[in-house]
């Protein structure tokens, strides 16, 4: 009877995790829409600042819950470096959302796990075997299908989107290092506290005071970004990253539908094909890393799985994502 109850409980946890991850995908997709809406009046750099400002407001209850002791750390220099890389990634990601079709910008953000895998080998010395390298190579083929360098469909802004993904991978490595000694809520709170002044500096060079509906869009961006991260982290506490990472890719079709309905954007065949290839690559990498972590025993996690427990650079995707990625 207990075994049956345990199985029912596990199934409920899986269903809840899937539902939370879908909610996260929806929140991040809607955040991309609010960024695009706000860009009718504001520069992407200024939108990033307001997203961080209101995101900090929504994150402050963490301090009320844990007290000032949450901020006690000896790793302030690592927080600063991780946040500086993250804010540059965010500026690139927000620019991609504004100047590229939404589906293309979001899909390219999901290339972060490819760069995370490479960085984990170079920086952390993690071992990656032939099958995961093959998945990484396939993922880069998907990226090339979307970017299409040397063709009429190429846009220099797609390189900015890829830059955001590369920097987001650096953020994921920073999270991996910090998570060895720091609490997840401390990483979240320090991120918001650093990002506000860091993103204010470039915003001042393009400053325009928002008016009317624009206030709704920038407050919404802050709320939806924080909400998406909350859904994301709670989903990963209930389910395996190997199951949930592919589900997070639901953000791409959601944002594609929103882009078509609100901005008249269509998804070209090359973007759709590239998205499918990147999806398959990410799904295999997540599955393989989860399998290796289970074989290594309890408490052992690869960089991509560990990084998924805290927000990376908050670009088109979760930043990654994970991620995001």
UniProtKB/TrEMBL annotation:
Domain EamA, which positions?
A: 17-147, 159-281
Keyword annotations for this protein? Membrane, Transmembrane, Transmembrane helix
What is the membrane topology listed in the Swiss-Prot or TrEMBL record?
Answer: Multi-pass membrane protein
Q: Does the keyword Transmembrane helix apply?
A: yes
| The keyword Hydrolase belongs to this UniProt entry's keyword annotation | no
Cellular component terms (Gene Ontology): membrane
Q: Which InterPro entries match?
A: EamA_dom, EmrE-like
Where is this chain's protein located in or outside the cell? Membrane
Which residue ranges does UniProt annotate as crossing the membrane?
14-35, 47-64, 76-102, 108-125, 132-150, 156-175, 187-209, 215-232, 244-263, 269-286
User: What protein is this chain from?
Assistant: DMT family transporter
Taxonomic path: Bacteria, Pseudomonadati, Pseudomonadota, Gammaproteobacteria, Lysobacterales
């Amino acid at each position: 009877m207990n075994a049956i109850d345990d199985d029912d409980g596990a199934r409920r946890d899986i269903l809840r995790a899937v539902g939370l991850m879908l909610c996260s995908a929806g929140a991040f997709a809607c955040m991309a829409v609010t960024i695009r809406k706000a860009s009718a009046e504001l520069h992407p750099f200024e939108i990033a600042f307001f997203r961080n400002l209101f995101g900090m407001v929504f994150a402050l209850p963490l301090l009320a819950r844990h007290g000032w002791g949450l901020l006690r750390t000896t790793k302030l220099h690592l927080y600063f470096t991780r946040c500086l890389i993250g804010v540059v990634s965010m500026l690139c990601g927000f620019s991609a959302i504004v100047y590229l079709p939404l589906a293309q910008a979001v899909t390219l953000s999901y290339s972060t796990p490819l760069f995370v895998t490479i960085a984990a080998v170079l920086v952390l010395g993690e071992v990656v075997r032939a099958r995961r390298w093959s998945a990484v190579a396939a993922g880069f083929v998907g990226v090339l299908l979307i970017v299409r360098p040397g063709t009429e469909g190429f846009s220099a802004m797609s390189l900015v989107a890829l830059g955001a993904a590369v920097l987001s991978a650096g953020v994921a490595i920073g999270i991996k290092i910090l998570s060895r000694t720091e609490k997840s809520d401390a990483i979240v709170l320090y991120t918001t506290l650093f990002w506000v002044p860091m993103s204010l500096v470039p915003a001042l060079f393009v400053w325009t005071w928002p008016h009317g509906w624009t206030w709704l869009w920038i407050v919404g961006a802050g709320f939806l970004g924080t909400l998406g991260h909350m859904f994301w982290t709670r989903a990963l506490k209930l389910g395996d990253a190997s199951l949930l990472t592919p589900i997070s890719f639901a953000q791409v079709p959601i944002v594609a539908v929103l882009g078509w309905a609100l901005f008249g954007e269509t998804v070209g065949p090359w973007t759709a094909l590239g998205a499918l290839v990147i999806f398959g690559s990410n799904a295999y990498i997540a599955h393989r890393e989860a399998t290796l972590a289970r074989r290594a025993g309890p408490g052992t996690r690869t960089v991509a799985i560990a990084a998924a427990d805290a927000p990376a650079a908050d670009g088109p995707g979760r930043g990654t994502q994970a991620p995001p990625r």
